[in-house]
UniProtKB/TrEMBL annotation:
Pathway: Lipid metabolism; fatty acid beta-oxidation
Gene Ontology terms, MF aspect: enoyl-CoA hydratase activity; isomerase activity; NAD+ binding; oxidoreductase activity, acting on the CH-OH group of donors, NAD or NADP as acceptor
Family to which this protein belongs: In the N-terminal section; belongs to the enoyl-CoA hydratase/isomerase family.
Keyword annotations: Fatty acid metabolism, Isomerase, Lipid degradation, Lipid metabolism, Lyase, Multifunctional enzyme, NAD, Oxidoreductase, Peroxisome
Superkingdom assignment: Bacteria
PANTHER family: 3-HYDROXYACYL-COA DEHYROGENASE
Gene Ontology biological process: fatty acid beta-oxidation
Species this protein is from: Methylobacterium oxalidis
This protein's record includes keyword NADP: no
Subcellular localization: Peroxisome
Protein name (record): 3-hydroxyacyl-CoA dehydrogenase
């Protein structure tokens, strides 16, 4: 016998089944069982119904579909709780008079892990991932994670997990004391029911995490000071990591209910702040970027297994780890990817192209005379691929451009998390779909562009402006410092090389240039370059431009990307500054017509994205 709970949007959100005296409550809100209003109410009602039913002795909470739960519903953020708040729901689950067992597969993240922590017992499969990633959205866990997790795994380990946002797998979670038992990958539900049955048979009732302080390590001298110092170094500029530490500290200094209230206040204060708004924008922007509206859903995505590097530029690049130029960086990235065979020229002989799924060249012209398989994709990786090469030729539908962003420091691979995919005028849907699949396989965020790559084009404008500022009187060190303080790393972006030493050209008077002017002009001209790409159809969305800078050029996540930053400041102010620059510095500074139009309408770049969606 089963029952289901349909609420709010009329979707079925929980399904309750019975096995003997055990109620199995399945969370059923695809794709990630996010804890929306409907699901929160559904869980509350299902738990209360099972608690009130004299024939039931214990409850198993389990996720239907791919995972246990991906956390609070981020799309609801910025509005007050409706129905029941997540914290109140978890208190209700923890208060349940019958034992509640969380059975975890896939992901238990954020509010999803907090839900599991409010249950009385926890089982997970070895491959499950359990974590508090709120910090990556500029937040603290806001439904008891900073209070219950240290009580289960100890303060130091909880600090690690909450401040880094990195999940642990099932096995590690068991070792940490986060789980009561591991379950086999297959058969989780049956094992959880058997576990709950044993609890009942042995008369073991609810065991509430909030009631056991024995693992808190708050007496440890220097623990919090060291955590604060490490977080300040590692997450420079980010507010949330320090706020996470303060909440975990409160677990040892305040009574449970007061510490929970402090955590919730901190969560809502951060949620309303500019950093979290920017980081949430970045989260959704990355997921939007993967969507290409005119790509048919059934476009065939061929697996890429064999890659050949063509042309003299890439010869030998694959294993050199060379950071010079996008072609060499991409060649190195492909060579280090699991499951890919990468062939390069040996001596003067070109690589064997037979059976290759992808041929990569550093110049468009290197692709012209190739005898690759007719099915192979011909990709060119250069900052500015020759447009005529992408527009003409015998196998145009197989040609596209690929660009891996800048060589960012701290990245284990040469290059960033980005893969820009440049479609030529005739690139076939199947070729584009295959490139998107390749990006996903490489663990990269793909952004699809037309007419030229977004990153190099905008970077060129930024470099020019930085050079002009030096020309007018700023010192190269000052420009580099201002950009570094903003959060960009000038050297890997080639900005240091764009800063000329020496005297200004005849007719210019050197003057003192303020830090504010440097930052404003660099950012304003960069956004103007982005707006021009957008109005020319070179980017699908403004948020794709943000993704390029966030994933590809080290833009700080807490600033959300250049277009988001301009939206947040207001486009009329941007337009006025660019107009004033044009009055002083010439018509090249005049705002893009898109900026003029949006500023006049009181619109934002984000509104364009919404209209297109
Ligand atoms: C939180 O829990 C706060 C609490 O502590 C306290 C509250 C008081 N909500 O990534 P995918 C959407 S903060 C709403 O492509 P995958 C996503 O936008 C939250 N929507 O799948 C996408 O939509 P679309 C803490 C969400 O399999 C679709 O689901 N949790 C949420 O590659 C598929 O997503 C996190 O930070 C959400 N929570 O990866 C986890 N999550 O199809 C955030 C996803 O329209 N989520 N969506 O583009 C993730 O990291 C990944 O989505 C996950 C699955 C690993 C779960």
């Amino acid at each position: 016998m089963g029952s289901s709970n349909t609420l709010g949007s009329l979707r079925t959100v929980t399904e309750t089944r019975r096995v003997g005296a055990i109620a199995i409550v399945a969370l059923s809100a695809p794709p990630v069982n996010a804890l929306s209003e409907a699901l929160r109410l559904g869980i509350r009602d299902a738990v209360e119904a099972a608690e009130a039913d004299p024939e039931l002795s214990a409850i198993v909470l389990i996720g239907a579909g791919r995972m246990f739960c991906g956390g609070a519903d981020i799309t609801e953020f910025g509005r007050p709780w409706q129905g029941i708040g997540l914290g109140a729901l978890l208190d209700r689950v923890e208060d349940c008079a019958k034992p509640v067992v969380a059975a975890i597969h896939g992901m238990a993240l954020g509010g999803g892990l907090e839900l599991a922590l409010a249950c009385h017992y926890r089982l997970a499969t070895p491959a499950a991932r359990l974590g508090q990633p709120e910090v990556k959205l500029g937040l603290v866990p806001g439904a008891g994670g900073t209070q219950r997790l240290p009580r289960l795994v100890g303060t130091e380990k909880a600090l690690d997990m909450i401040v880094s946002g990195e999940p642990v797998d099932g096995r590690a979670a068991l070792d940490l004391g986060l789980l009561d038992a591991l379950a086999a990958e297959e058969g989780l539900e049956a094992e959880a029911v058997a576990f709950a049955g044993r609890l009942v048979a042995e008369g073991r009732g609810p065991r509430r995490v909030r009631e056991d302080d024995s693992r808190l390590e708050h007496g440890r001298i220097g623990l919090f000071a060291a955590a604060r110092e490490a977080a300040a170094r590692r997450y420079r500029g980010f507010e949330a990591p320090q706020a996470c530490i303060a909440c975990v500290e409160a677990a040892g200094t305040l009574p449970f209910a007061e510490a929970l209230a402090f955590e919730e206040r901190t969560f809502f204060a951060l949620m309303a702040g500019a950093q979290s708004i920017a980081q949430r924008h970045a989260f959704f922007a990355e997921r939007e970027a993967a969507k290409v509206p005119d790509l048919p859903a059934d476009a065939r995505r061929r697996p890429v297994r064999r890659v050949a590097l063509a042309g003299p530029d890439l010869a030998g690049a694959a294993f050199a780890g060379a950071a010079e130029g996008p072609g060499r960086r991409l060649a190195a990235i492909l060579s280090q990817a699991a499951g890919l065979t990468v062939l390069c020229a040996e001596g003067a002989a070109p690589p064997d192209l037979a059976g290759c799924d992808l041929v990569l060249a550093g110049q468009t012209r290197d692709l012209a005379s190739l005898e690759a398989d007719p099915e192979a994709i011909l990709a060119v990786a250069a900052d500015a691929p020759d447009p005529s090469g992408l527009a003409e030729g015998p196998r145009l539908e197989r040609v596209l451009g690929l660009h891996p962003g800048a060589p960012l420091p701290g990245s284990p691979l040469p290059g960033s998390r980005l893969l820009e995919i440049l479609r030529g005028p005739a690139t076939a849907p199947e070729v584009l779909a295959t490139a998107l699949g390749l990006a996903r396989g490489l663990g990269r965020v793909a952004v699809v562009t037309r007419g030229g790559f977004i990153g190099p084009r905008m970077l060129g404008r930024l470099r020019r402006e930085a050079g002009r500022l030096v020309h007018e009187g700023a010192s190269p060190e000052q420009v580099a410092r201002v950009l570094t303080e903003f959060g960009l790393a000038p050297a890997p972006l080639g900005l240091d090389a764009a800063l000329p030493e020496g005297e200004p050209a005849a007719g210019h008077h050197r003057r003192a240039v303020s830090d504010d002017e440097i930052l404003e002009r660099c950012l304003d001209t960069l956004v103007d370059a982005g707006a021009r790409i957008l109005e020319a159809g070179g980017a699908l969305r403004a948020s794709d431009i943000d993704v390029v800078w966030l994933a590809g050029y080290g833009w700080p996540a807490y600033r959300g990307g250049p277009m988001h930053g301009a939206d947040a400041q207001g486009l009329p102010a941007l337009r006025d500054r660019l107009r004033a620059l044009a009055d002083r510095g010439g018509p090249g500074y005049a705002p893009a017509s898109l900026i003029e139009r949006l500023a006049a309408e009181g619109g934002r770049f984000a509104d364009l994205d919404r209209r297109r969606a």
